[in-house]
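Bumping my old thread because nobody answered last time. Still need a sequence for this structure:
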């Protein structure tokens, strides 16, 4: 049915009164449509017809009035908006005053003493301004194709784009984004508006949008498309602290922008929309999807041919992207400032509701003052110790990281990197690793490999990029737990331009340091366990069938949480987590702020810190800082406040609210046990005098990771050490020694305080083998010594039951069984046994099975009255 419906207001009004059926549908009649005969008949009456006509006239005039009214309102609104827009436009300077070339004011970064530790400027990141004739046409077209396809046609504002963005915005529930910004507008936003004051409210954003669109149109009147594009391409944020296409080209491909291929151009243009999400180093898969869109847009918009498209798509471009930044020492940032910049940019973006590019523009050209949380004295201690080669007992090795492009004789291009080199050498040496004893060895191995793979081919200019890294690597974070402020950070040994910040950018296994977080903290906080609660430390299996063992192969039998923390006992941690439920442990670990956990980590391995992805050093430090801060978690922050160029505070973390993870009492109890660990337990090598400290060491299989996490009442410090390629290590003790070296120095001159004991902590004598009240003259007579000790509890968890793992029996020496009524008194001794428990443990030798407790001596079974025994030295005559 083809149906043209002309709205008839009368029909609608009538239908509301129900007087007659509303149908004025100009349809092509179709069989089966049923018009009521009665209705048709009604119109045939002259009186009714007249009445109807009058009604129609009235309604038509009503409709006409309504329409005019609506038009008038719309006109008034348009005039109102126009005059509103005009007041916004009047605030703008003449277009000749607007500078769109990269410029702006430097941003200063201050340490906690107010000293400038770094400055950020667009010049630093944007090393060289390149004119458009040096920028490949493919790159220009790539940006136009993906960012602003009507760039060459519109007058600064893309109406079609705006309408489309409006519809998408409405469809997304009013979430409007940058979709409609033309390259001209983006340029103005980045250069002209970036240094303006903040816009937070809807009105402020609307004001800026109006001004931006107006200026864009004005700008297009005085500047050519090429001038606009040139400035845009020299200004845009392309991730990894690069601004402009030249900086990006050198950063990602180690060559001048003029040498980029189409395939590489597409990678770089793909970054612009969201430099974090489409970062080709950290998110190559995201960038690859974007790159494909860039290329297909270029194809559909006629900038490239199908052949070019296919050739670019076939190029294995990501294998030759430089994953480290060795820009000849020009990167000025430290690991701390790198992390700081990332946080400030992200907070600017979120809190001012601006794009990431605008946030970076503000950072590099906005003349901001950033009050960082870095304490330069602490930072120096950290840097000195992390960089001290004598701290690494295995000695220093060198790893290699490179990208090598070879153009073969037949014109095909092949890419090589350290992974292909490793496979090459592994063919003849299964144990081959990329960790060399000297830099010369590394260089020689590379030279030989390069000779092999480049034979009969050529390495084009910019086709080679090699870096050497000191190994094993390390990362360290120092946090003031009371605020969450990061005082110092190291992301590796010798920051020689490497952009990998091992404290924040990579995840590694936390090993034993996770036991407290995932098992003991939840067990005590929510699982009604106490530091005296015991598990049977004996060989066992995990639910997945894997053997559960202790790293030292030693099994203690019944073991308290305090002992398990002190000696880092695997079995107890796993059994404790299983007791309280892995789900509870998983929830606590998330509450401790870890963001890199996977759903698959919700299992028993969580107790051992054996995770799918691992954790970052900064998040591990923040979690331990929460225990140090009486159970209250603070987000790690690298700055307190940020001021704009007028001195107005635009970001402030000092009022940030964290959240409580543990009760104060739980945090204090765990601290008490971790104090033992450092005094007498597995963490002993980190111990030093003059300051109250607590902590846990952690090792993973074959010492691939060595971690130390600990704190004083002042600072929390976490260190990780290991090879970048996850090679095994001979020694894992250096994390503790470096931790100690740093902590000792940064506490010099600080008063030795204790951890504040909260209300609600009491102490009670308990038996170590059961965690329950000691049985008099039993638990203190364990064959190994007195098992009664004084433990701390919360008032509501003090044990009320008596020890059920000890039993005292009269044993006949002759039979070794419980004495019967005929055993001579001289042969009887009182012995204390362990009940329950497992054989292959320290308890094994002292156990008595419940069956044996029920037996009686089978040597003295004859009926000799007990009174007649040796006690009275009376010779016993056999009775006849
Ligand atoms: Zn006992
Ligand atoms: Zn006997």
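Sorry it took so long. Here it is:
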């Amino acid at each position: 049915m083809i149906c043209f419906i002309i709205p008839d207001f009368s029909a609608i009004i009538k239908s509301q009164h129900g007087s007659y059926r509303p149908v004025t549908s100009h349809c092509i009649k179709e069989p089966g449509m049923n018009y009521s005969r009665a209705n048709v008949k009604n119109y045939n009456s002259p009186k009714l017809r007249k009445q109807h006509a009058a009604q129609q006239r009235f309604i038509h005039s009503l409709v006409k009035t309504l329409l005019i009214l609506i038009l008038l309102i719309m006109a008034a609104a348009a005039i109102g908006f126009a005059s509103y827009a005009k007041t916004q436009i009047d605030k703008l300077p003449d277009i000749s005053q607007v500078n769109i070339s990269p410029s702006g004011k430097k941003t200063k970064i201050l340490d906690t003493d107010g000293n400038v530790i770094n400055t950020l400027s667009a010049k630093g990141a944007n090393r060289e301004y390149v004119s458009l004739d040096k920028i490949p046409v493919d790159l220009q077209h790539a940006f136009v194709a993906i960012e602003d396809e009507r760039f060459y046609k519109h007058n600064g504002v893309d109406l079609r784009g705006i309408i489309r963005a409006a519809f998408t915005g409405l469809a997304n529930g009013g979430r409007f984004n940058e979709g409609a910004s033309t390259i001209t507008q983006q340029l103005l936003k980045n250069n002209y508006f970036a240094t303006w004051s903040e816009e937070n409210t809807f009105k402020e954003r609307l004001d800026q949008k109006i001004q931006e669109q107006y200026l864009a149109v004005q700008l297009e009147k005085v500047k050519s498309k090429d001038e606009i594009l040139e400035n845009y391409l020299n200004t845009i944020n392309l991730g990894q602290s690069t601004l402009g296409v030249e900086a990006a080209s050198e950063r990602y491909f180690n060559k001048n922008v003029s040498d980029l291929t189409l395939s590489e151009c597409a990678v770089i243009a793909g970054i612009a929309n969201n430099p974090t999400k489409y970062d080709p180093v950290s998110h190559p898969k995201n960038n690859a999807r974007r790159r494909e869109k860039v290329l297909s847009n270029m194809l559909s918009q006629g900038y490239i041919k199908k052949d070019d498209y296919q050739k670019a798509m076939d190029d294995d471009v990501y294998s030759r992207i430089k994953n480290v930044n060795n820009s000849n020492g020009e990167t000025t940032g430290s690991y701390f400032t790198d992390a700081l910049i990332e946080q400030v940019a992200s907070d600017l973006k979120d809190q001012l509701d601006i794009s990431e590019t605008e946030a970076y523009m503000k950072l590099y050209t906005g003349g901001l003052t950033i009050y960082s949380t870095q304490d330069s004295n602490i930072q120096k201690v950290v840097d000195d110790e992390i960089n001290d080669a004598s701290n690494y007992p295995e000695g220093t090795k060198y790893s290699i990281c490179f990208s090598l492009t070879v153009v073969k004789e037949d014109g095909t291009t092949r890419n090589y990197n350290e992974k292909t080199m490793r496979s090459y050498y592994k063919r003849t040496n299964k144990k081959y690793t990329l960790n060399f004893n000297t830099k010369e060895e590394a260089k020689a191995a590379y030279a030989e490999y390069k000779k092999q793979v480049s034979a009969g081919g050529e390495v084009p200019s910019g086709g080679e990029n090699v870096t050497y890294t000191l190994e094993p690597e390390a990362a360290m974070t120092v946090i003031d737990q009371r605020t969450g402020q990061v005082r110092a950070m190291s992301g590796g040994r010798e920051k020689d331009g490497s952009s990998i910040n091992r404290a924040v950018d990579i995840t590694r296994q936390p090993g034993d340091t996770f036991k407290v977080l995932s098992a003991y903290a939840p067990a005590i906080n929510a699982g009604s366990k106490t530091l005296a609660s015991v598990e049977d430390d004996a060989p066992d299996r995990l639910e997945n069938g894997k053997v559960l063992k202790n790293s030292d192969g030693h099994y203690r039998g019944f073991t308290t949480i305090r002992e398990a923390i002190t000696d880092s006992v695997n079995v107890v941690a796993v059994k404790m987590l299983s007791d309280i439920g892995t789900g509870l442990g998983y929830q606590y670990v998330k509450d401790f702020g870890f963001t890199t956990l996977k759903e698959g980590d919700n299992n028993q391995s969580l107790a051992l810190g054996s995770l799918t992805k691992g954790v970052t050093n900064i998040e591990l430090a923040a979690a331990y800082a929460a225990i140090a801060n009486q159970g209250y978690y603070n987000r790690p922050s690298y700055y307190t406040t940020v001021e704009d160029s007028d001195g107005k505070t635009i970001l402030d973390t000092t009022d940030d609210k964290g959240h409580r993870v543990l009760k104060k009492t739980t945090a204090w109890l765990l601290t008490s046990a971790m104090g033992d660990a450092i005094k007498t337990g597995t963490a002993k090598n980190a111990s030093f005098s003059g300051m109250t400290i607590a902590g846990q060491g952690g090792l993973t299989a074959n010492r691939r990771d060595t971690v130390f996490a600990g704190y004083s009442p002042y600072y929390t410090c976490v260190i990780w050490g290991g090879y970048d390629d996850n090679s095994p290590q001979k020694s894992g003790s250096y994390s503790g020694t470096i931790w100690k070296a740093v902590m000792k120095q940064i506490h010099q001159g600080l008063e030795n305080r204790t951890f504040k004991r909260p209300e609600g902590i009491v102490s009670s004598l308990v038996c170590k083998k059961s965690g329950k009240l000691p049985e008099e003259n039993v638990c203190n007579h364990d064959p190994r010594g007195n098992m009664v000790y004084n433990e701390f509890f919360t008032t509501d968890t003090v044990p009320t039951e008596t020890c059920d793992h000890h039993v005292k029996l009269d044993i006949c020496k002759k039979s070794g069984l419980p004495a019967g009524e005929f055993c001579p008194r001289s042969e009887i001794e009182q012995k204390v046994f362990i009940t329950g428990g497992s054989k292959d443990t320290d308890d094994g030798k002292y156990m008595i099975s419940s069956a044996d407790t029920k037996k009686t001596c089978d040597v003295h079974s004859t009926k000799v009255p007990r009174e007649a025994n040796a006690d009275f030295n009376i010779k016993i005559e056999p009775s006849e």
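DSSP finds 26 helices and 27 strands in the chain. Let me know if any region looks off to you.
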